[in-house]
């Protein structure tokens, strides 16, 4: 038993070492991802649920790794946050997506743009002035931009966070709470933050029409948003049944594979041109 115990320790150490090595390699690769032009912004449309009209797009980052292929953001954003690389990467996403929005506006498409930002970007130089400069450079009206922050950020509740967010509001940018419903924030709590939009996390949408609790959770979120006069977007809408239940319950805006997956800019352009609500 002693022997196998030791082997086990050995095994774990080796596995942990392997894990640490992989992480270090990934970190090295991520350091070069920007200048080697391996990052790309995809776009997913946001739709008015009843009419099917496209109202905006969300920018979603992708990493084309030369050996590993496409790496999804969940697999490298946390690393980018830990290493601080999210500072440069996040600004690049904002600049790239704003340039793309300019392009769509020039073609006569009236869309808003939503960009995810990490709390870490606060210490990494994402000030209101930086956002204002990017908007001006691309001739974008601030009201066309939405910055999405996760609900978790609010739970850390600090004066710094509120001040940071107020800075964006002063520029005229809109703010959305992402993954809403996963962080247990209360109604009174939400009111303290200068947000305009809630995005219902897709785990709630998934549970729609499966049991009555799923439906009542969503209707609770919808009435909460209504009482705070917040715009509401449901994420992860995959089926027609989900779409119609959400529309019936009063959720106006939706996003999900039912309408379109996130697509490269060119593909979304083609999709937008042929789209019939
Ligand atoms: P998120 O902001 O909650 O984005 C929504 C995620 O749901 C996206 O995953 C999207 O592809 C996926 N999705 C959309 N519709 C459906 C659907 O109908 N069904 C299912 N199953 N999934 C759907 P993605 O693109 O892998 O992004 C994952 C997360 O990575 C994002 O979650 C966001 O938190 C983060 N992320 C992506 N881009 C950026 C970025 O530029 N900066 C930061 N800080 N985070 C980002
Ligand atoms: Ca988001
Ligand atoms: Ca989300
Ligand atoms: Ca998410």
Note the gap between the termini: 67 Å
Rounded to an integer in angstroms, the radius of gyration calculated over CA atoms is 21 Å
- Overall 3D geometry? globular
Largest sheet, spatial ordering of strands: 1-2-4-5-6-7-8-9
* Poorly predicted residue ranges: none
Highlighted features:
277 residues, eight-stranded mixed beta barrel, globular, binds ligand C2E, binds calcium ion
Description of the structure:
The chain has 277 residues and is an alpha/beta fold. Helix content is 48%, strand content 20%. The chain has helices spanning 2-33, 77-83, 86-106, 128-137, 151-155, 159-171, 187-190, 202-206, 212-227, 240-249, 265-274, and strands at 39-48, 54-65, 69-71, 112-116, 145-150, 174-180, 197-200, 231-234, 253-254, 263-264. Strands 1-2-4-5-6-7-8-9 form an 8-stranded mixed beta barrel, surrounded by 5 helices. Helix 4 (128-137) links the parallel strand 4 (112-116) and strand 5. The longest helix is centred in the N-terminal third of the chain and has 32 residues, at 2-33. The model has no long low-confidence stretch (mean pLDDT 91). It binds ligand C2E and calcium ion (3 copies). Ligand C2E is lined by residues 44, 60-61, 72-74, 77, 90, 93, 116-118, 178-179, 202, 235-238, 255-257, 262. One calcium ion binds at residues 58, 116, 148, 178.
């Amino acid at each position: 038993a002693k022997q196998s115990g030791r082997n086990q320790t050995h095994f774990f150490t080796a596995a942990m070492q392997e894990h640490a090595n992989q992480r270090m390699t990934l970190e090295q690769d991520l350091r070069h991802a920007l200048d080697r032009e391996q990052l790309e912004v995809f776009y997913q449309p946001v739709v008015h649920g009843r009419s099917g009209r496209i109202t905006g797009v969300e920018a979603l980052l992708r990493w084309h790794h030369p050996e590993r292929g496409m790496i999804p953001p969940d697999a490298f954003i946390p690393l980018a946050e830990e290493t601080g690389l999210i500072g440069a990467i996040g600004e690049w996403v904002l600049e790239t997506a704003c340039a793309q929005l300019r392009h769509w506006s020039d073609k006569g498409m009236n869309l808003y743009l939503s960009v995810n930002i990490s709390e870490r970007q606060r210490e990494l130089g994402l000030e209101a002035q930086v956002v204002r400069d990017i908007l001006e450079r691309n001739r974008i009206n601030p009201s066309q931009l939405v910055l999405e922050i996760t609900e978790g950020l609010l739970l850390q509740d600090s004066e710094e966070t509120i001040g940071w967010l107020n800075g964006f509001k002063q520029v005229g940018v809109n703010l959305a709470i992402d993954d809403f419903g996963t962080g247990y924030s209360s109604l009174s709590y939400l009111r303290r933050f200068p947000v305009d939009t809630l995005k219902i996390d897709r785990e709630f949408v998934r549970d729609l029409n499966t049991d009555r609790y799923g439906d009542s959770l969503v209707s609770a979120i919808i009435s909460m948003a209504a009482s705070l006069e917040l715009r509401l977007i449901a994420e992860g809408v995959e089926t027609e049944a989900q779409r119609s239940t959400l529309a019936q319950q009063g959720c106006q805006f939706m996003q999900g594979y039912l309408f379109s997956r996130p697509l490269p800019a060119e593909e979304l352009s083609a999709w937008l041109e042929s789209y019939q609500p």
